[in-house]
Specification:
The protein has 136 residues and is of the alpha+beta class. It is built from two helices and seven strands.
Length: 136
């Protein structure tokens, strides 16, 4: 067998190993109900839940509780099915958290509480068209 054939088989084998190992780490997008069902079956799989922060009539975000040392916080999140869930995050509040349009939490349920390992924010774009008032 030629050295090039052996090298090609080796490259293909490494590619297959990489694909299989990353497929196990991939998580899925679910709502809170589906995430709870996964956890109740004993799964510790990390899932993505997309939602938005609830706001009061004045447009202020409600339901945020910071720890006394500001190293962790919890907040309410409404998923796409409008199920409200308290989420605990063991890190400081990300910058622009209160301005975000959508929030993606990556984590799972532990003891009937959703624990986020990571938070992704979709903030309003500074490149969106804004109405300009020409003082004419």
């Amino acid at each position: 067998m030629k050295k090039s054939h052996i090298l090609a088989i080796g490259v293909i084998a490494v590619a297959i190993v990489i694909i299989i190992s990353t497929a196990g780490d991939a998580s899925t997008y679910v709502n809170f109900e589906q995430a709870y069902q996964l956890a109740s079956t004993g799964s510790s799989t990390q899932v993505h839940v997309v939602g938005q922060l609830p706001k009061d009539g004045a447009g202020q975000v409600v339901g945020i509780e910071k720890s006394t040392d500001n190293l962790s916080f919890s907040f309410l999140l409404l998923d796409d099915n409008n199920k409200e869930q308290k989420v605990f995050y063991n890190e400081p509040m990300p910058p622009d958290f209160l301005r975000s349009e959508k929030v993606v939490v990556i984590g799972n349920y532990q003891n009937s509480q959703f624990i986020a390992k990571k938070i992704l924010l979709k903030c309003p774009s500074k490149y969106q068209e804004q109405k300009l008032n020409a003082g004419v």
